[in-house]
Structures are given as C-alpha cells and as structure tokens.
Model the fold of this input.
Amino acid sequence: METLNQEELQRSIPGYLLEQSAELVRGAEVLPGGLEALAQRLFEAKQQRRPLRVKLGVDPTSTDLHLGHAVVFRKLRCFQEFGHQVVLIIGGFTAQIGDPSGRTATRPALSAESVAANARTYLEQMGVILDLDKTEVVNNADWLAPLSLNEVLKLAGSVTVNQLLAKEAFGDRLEKQLPVGLHELFYPLLQGYDSVAVRADIELGGTDQRFNILQGRQLQSLYGLKSPQLAMLLPLLEGTDGVQKMSKSYNNYIGLKETPSDMFGKCMRVPDQLIVKYFELTTTFAGTQIDAIAAELKEGANPKDLKERLGHQIVRQYHGQSAADATLDEWKRVHSERQIPSDMPLYAVPVAVPLFKLLVESKLAAGSGEAKRLVGDGAVRLDGEQEKDPNREISVSPGVQYVLQVGRRKFIRLVND
Done:
C-alpha cells in the first residue's frame, strides 16, 4: 500500500489513530515517511485486527543501565500502552560480536555465560519501565546460531562490501588506518535478520542505529515480507556534562540502580539547555505537559525549580512516590535551608589523621592533590566551620561525633569506633 499524503490521511484514517501516531512519533524520527507512514501502518494493522510488532534488540554487554538506555524503553512502553506487541530481542548471539556503531576499536568478545548473566540484570532493570508480562522476550541465538553456511552466504549476498564500509563506524576507522574485523561487517546483517525472524513492523533504536535498522528493512524485502519495517530513531541523550552522550565511560550518567539521593543530585547537574530534552526523553510526562514546561522556561521560570521537578519525577519512576517526596524534602532542607542531612554515612577515626588524608581515605576526595585543593578553595567544613589547613590533625574521642562536609552535597559523620 502506498503512503497516503496528509490530506488523504485526514480523510481515511480515524482521528484517534492520527493522535496516537503524533504521540508515538514525538521526539523521534520515523523512516521512511515520518508520521504519515506510521499512521498508515497503524491503520493497516487495525484493519487486519492485530497489534503492531515493535522490535528492540539489546546486546547485554554490561550489567548496569542508565537513563540514556531507558529512552528507547520508554518509547516501547508508550507502544505497549496503546496496545501494541513489544518484541524484545536479547542479543545472545550478536552480543558475542558487539555492535560496531560508534566504536573506534573492535569490541572484546564476550562469552555466552557473560551475556546470559548480563541479560538477567538488564531484564530486572527494564521491568521497572516495561510491562514484561506483555513483552515477547526472545534470544537471537535461537535463530542465528543454527544458520547453515549456505544461509550465511545468502545473507552476505544481500549487501555489498562498499555499502557496509560506508557505515560511519567502519569508514572512520579505515580512514584512521585502524583495523576492522571481518566478523564486525556481519553485525548489521545479523541485526537485520532479527527483523526477518520476528516479522517486525517497527524497529526502535538510537540515531546511531540508522544503518543497521534500515538494513533490516532491506532484508525483510529480500526474504519476502510485503510490508518491511519502519525505523523509529530516537535522539542520543547527552549526559550531565551536556556534551558527550550519556555513558559510564564519560562518568556523566544517571544509573537506573542508583540511590534516590544520587539520582536526584545528578538531575540537579543537568545543564539548563537540556531540561526540556530530559523531560521529553526520560520521563512519563505527556507531550502537553512537556510543552507547558518548555513554555515556563521560556517565560523565565527558575531552572533550579524545574530540575527539582525533573529529579522528583525520575526518582518517583524508579523508586516510588514516597522515596521521591523524601528525597526532594531532604534536598531542599540541605541545599535551600543549608541544613545538614538527617542521615549520612559513618566513618571511624580511631587515631588522629591529617585532614587531607582523611578526605582521601573516606573517598571525599580522589587524591591528596584534590583534597588539598578542596581545603584551599574553602569547600571543607568540620561541624560547620570552614577548614583552612589541609595538614590539621583530626581526632575523634570516644562518644564524640563530628560532621565533615565537602561542598554542598557530600557529608559524613566522624566517630571514634
């Protein structure tokens, strides 16, 4: 069926499906055809009395997920809420190769055991966002591992080396005379074959997945699927530094398993220019709510207030309402009212120790140089009094407690034992 134009859409497709399409496509790019193609795909599925099959492939290459990963999970949840079938592909086979997208070097090979262990932790964390009872979870090792050599050669014959080397990750590495493994060239083909195996209508991914997802669309046509999948591409989320994409490697991430306090505190470090983007990509707020927040910011609302709302919402999503309320109250008490936290870690100081060394040993500073700089900058307080001598001997008598503070967010309670 050819894609209808906007005027034809308005005439032939029910209004509620157009509204559904507009909400689903919000913040995303749909290829080919944009919102109109998605609306038409929804209409076709409705006529066939079936939900859309919406695919996401994940390679469990580590144990922890962060808000950047969660962007696509949230969009999947949106599809679930509209009654569509989410198909989550665990890359039991592809994770052993590793997606070369955005990589400057070949990924180290993972064992099947490591992939399986990581997959379990992924599902635990995804379960906070997705309704796993309504999610079709499959492992691509089930259909990729049994492929015969003839089938692999058929797959390889669907694309030219020239096309594969045009992929940005490969082109950059070749230009810099960095090695590209032959097995890496197969990755887009294997990911594409996943779309054939699960008969996907739509595949989600970050903007760095454009090549791979469109490869899946091409393979579906080759293998006889009459309506090849649409690609829904979501923006990569910048980390709290506002520059690099969110990544543990850049230490600019907000982890899904972090404590409410750490999660909230990191939200407060989000650059002002990214506030609306974070609301759009990391929260469950509807489009109208996000538009209202953007309008508030444009009209001069205090970014700090909006970041407090952001932090509260994110903590609520991952830790519940009571944890979110308590974390916001504690933040305001410590940072707005300049009071010390009601709860903080205890650190034993059985013998006298120089202040700079205490800061390092208690992990309030990364090293002696940083500890001395923090003291010199006036960032260190002991029971509210600013400390100026990094070599001052700190001792704690039995039964006595002191509060050691670094900056506005780091507190520990010093005890003798």
